[in-house]
Specification:
The chain is α/β, with parallel strands linked by helices and about 350 residues long. Helices cover about 40% and strands about 20% of the residues. The protein has helices spanning about 40-45, 50-70, 90-110, 115-125, 175-185, 190-200, 225-240, 245-270, 285-295, 305-310, 315-325; strands at about 10-15, 20-25, 30-35, 80-85, 110-115, 130, 140-145, 150-160, 160-170, 275-280, 300. A six-stranded mixed sheet has the order 5-4-1-2-3-6, sandwiched between helices. A five-stranded mixed sheet has the order 9-8-7-10-11, with helices on both faces. It binds 5'-O-[(R)-(carboxyoxy)(hydroxy)phosphoryl]adenosine (KG4) and zinc ion.
């Protein structure tokens, strides 16, 4: 995409419990990325408390913007456009980032680019640190597995900004299943990383949890495996009183990873994809990364750990491609708490 107009984007992200700002050039070269995590604030509730999240965004948003500009050694006058997450996410959290971005766009006389958070996760694989060697861009057609706390879906990307949803979860998202199983096992919030940590000391073959293959569809289902863990936990508690938490975590993780990996590989073959892309918070999972990295059939793009979970660099990357291809937002746009990728405008022909 060397023919697109160059632009330096300042991007904001506040869809859930991270307040983030980044500065990125041409959708790829990352100049700075600041993430203020609210993890400790929500840990006592065992999950994200929406009103606490929005109020913390109000406190963090300006310092995060100032830090991102300072880290990039830039002033507001050296930015070409403002990108911001419009959705999906928590309405009260999204409002804070969107209003800050509108204020910046209005005050600086810059274009505003509203970005879909899921598209952001996908574009995290375009990002690299400025000053380092430029890695090759993901090539289309691309099979994209999106696995986050709220979404699990397979999309075929035939071009920039162009998605064909092949399937998605019929119930829990993969990240949600990790979070719920963590709670069942008495592991701390956030669930994904603590299940992964416990699983590292466990035997993934000790328990056989069900794999929902949902033959002849590209859909997923993770509520069965979660319920199966619940029954096993109750059984074990009744019998011995103690829980082999590490083995349960490892066996659960193995069941989820096997389905995500195999279905993505099958879909890539079936639809003639050149490469595979994995994105979203669950792409930080070591077992999932290992599964994809161990195969040699497809080149796989998985972002570095810092870009797997929520950040603004990915919003700047997606925002750049939207901006460069003419998708600029009006200053009166609202947040979009529910906003599937399938409802986005594709790349103009
Ligand atoms: O993308 P993300 O940061 O936020 C959403 O857009 O949802 O994803 C958060 C999800 C949570 O469910 C979290 O438990 C999961 O990603 N997650 C992980 C890991 N790190 C984060 N799941 C499994 N293993 C991990 N290492
Ligand atoms: Zn996310």
């Amino acid at each position: 995409m060397t023919d697109l107009k160059p632009a330096r984007i300042l991007a904001l992200e506040s869809s859930c419990d991270e307040t983030a700002c980044a500065v990125i050039e041409n959708g790829r070269a990352l100049l700075s990325s600041v993430v203020a995590s609210q993890m400790e604030l929500h840990a006592r509730y065992g999950g994200v408390f929406p009103e606490v999240a929005s109020r913390q965004h109000v406190l963090s948003i300006v310092p995060v913007v100032e830090q991102a500009l300072a880290d990039a050694h830039l002033s507001f006058g050296e930015v070409d456009a403002i990108a911001v997450t419009r959705g999906p996410g928590l309405a009260g959290s999204l409002v804070v980032g969107l209003n800050a971005a509108k204020g910046l766009a209005l005050g600086l006389g810059l274009p505003l680019v509203g970005v879909n958070h899921l598209e952001g996760h996908i574009y995290s694989s375009w990002v690299y640190n400025a000053g380092e060697a430029t890695p090759p861009e993901p090539q289309f057609p691309l099979m994209a597995l999106l696995v986050s706390g709220g979404h699990t879906e397979l999309n075929l990307m035939t071009d920039h900004l162009t998605y064909k949803r092949l399937g998605s979860t019929l119930d829990d998202a993969a990240g949600e299943a990790f979070d719920k199983v963590a709670r069942l096992l008495g592991l701390p919030y956030p669930g994904g990383p603590s299940v992964q940590k416990a699983a590292e000391n466990g035997d993934p073959t000790r328990f056989h949890f069900p794999r929902a293959w949902l033959e002849d569809t590209w859909n997923f289902s993770f509520s069965g495996v979660k319920t199966s863990v619940l029954y096993e936990v109750n059984n074990l508690k009744n019998r011995s009183g103690s829980l082999p938490v590490d083995d349960l975590a490892a066996s659960f993780q193995a069941a989820v990873v096997e389905v995500l990996f195999k279905k993505t590989m099958d879909a890539a073959r079936e639809f003639g994809a050149k490469e595979i892309l994995v994105a979203g918070g669950v792409s930080a999972n070591r077992a999932l990364r290992k599964a994809f990295q161990a195969q040699r059939e497809f080149k796989v793009h998985i972002p570095p750990l810092a870009l797997c979970t929520d950040n603004a660099a990915m919003i700047g990357a997606a925002g750049y491609f939207r901006y460069a291809l003419g998708h600029v937002s009006d200053l009166d746009v609202d947040v979009q708490p529910t906003w599937p990728l399938s409802r986005l405008k594709p790349k103009p022909r």
